[in-house]
Structure formats: structure tokens, C-alpha cells
Amino acid sequence: MSDFRTDIGRVAETFGSPRTAIGNGWGWIMAYGVVSILVGLAAFIWPFAATYAATLVIGALLFVSGVFSIAAGLFGRGHEGRFYAVAFGVLTVIVGAVMVFEPVTGALSLTLLVTVWLLMRGLLEIVLGFRMRRRRGWMIALGAINILLAAFILATVPWSALTLPGFILGVSFMMGGATAIATASDHRKGAEAFGAIA
């Protein structure tokens, strides 16, 4: 029995205990932060292109999702939600097609979607910020900025719908990247990732 415990101890020393392995993987967090900042800069420099690209991508995803929903309703026999699946699929295909073929109209819809996304993200970040041990102020500030950005979008729609989503996404990605880089720096020194309270 003692030999077995000795072997287990050697294995633990070889692979490292969870405590000593806490700093592992900080480079991935750092890489995410750097890439996020670069994406944010690109969106900020070319806001129209960012808005246009996001509109096309989201429209294409909606279109494909709608096609699969229609197929599920037509061929998925024996379930009570067939009519809903077909109706929802048709609606989704129409919305997706509008965003792909009429990106200006889709940009207005995308502006509202970005507003909701920023608002929800900001609220979640503020809640998480109050639960963190380190970088609490960073996360709370990030959440507050995202909520203010959402309010700014609502105040400027529809005139800035073609460029504002690009600017907003750019600022949000850059702030998120800066926060991730700071977190990676802490994690590299042995702090738990994001410092969340269990």
C-alpha cells in the first residue's frame, strides 16, 4: 500500500499539482487579447466594411439556419412543432435574405442586435466584476463602457447605422483585448485565470 502511495506521489510531482499548474496556458489568454485588439483596430479603422461584413455573415447564418428549420419541419414527421419549425424557418430565411441582399436595411437590424448584445454583455461583465478578486475595476469598467455604448447606439439610430456597429464592435473588442492581456499577465504570475471566486 505504501508503494502505491509513493507511486502516486511521483506521478503528481511529474505532472504537477493543480496549484503549480495554475499559470499554464497564460499564452492563450494573451494571444486572445492581442488578436481581439487587432480585430478591434481593424473594425475601428474600417467601420463601414466591418458593419457590411457583419451584416453579410449574420444574414448568411440566418439564411442557412432558416433552411434547416424548414427541412426539420417538413421531414421531421411525428412531432408537434412541425408547423412552428416551418413558419420560423421561412421567417428566418426572409430576414437572412434581406440582410444579405439588402445590407443597408440589414445594417439597421444589425445595429439593434449589436445594441442588445452590448447591453447583455455589459450587464454580465459587471456581475462578474463584482465576483472577481483581481482586476475587478477593469471588468466593471468594461461592462459600464459596453452599456454606455449600447445607449449611444440607441441615441444615434438610424443615421449612423452603416458605420456605428463597426465602431462599437471595434471599441468593444479593443477593451476586451486589453482586459484579457491584463488577466493573462496575472495568470502568468500564478493567479487563477480571471480570478473568479468559486
UniProtKB/TrEMBL annotation:
User: Domain of life of the organism in this record?
Assistant: Bacteria
Q: Where are the transmembrane segments?
A: 26-46, 52-76, 83-101, 107-128, 140-161, 167-184
What the entry lists under InterPro entries is as follows:
Acid_resist_chaperone_HdeD, DUF308_memb
- Keyword terms: Membrane, Transmembrane, Transmembrane helix
Q: Which is one Gene Ontology cellular component term of this protein? A: plasma membrane
- Protein name per UniProt: Membrane protein
* Naturally occurring in which organism (per UniProt): Sphingomonas endophytica
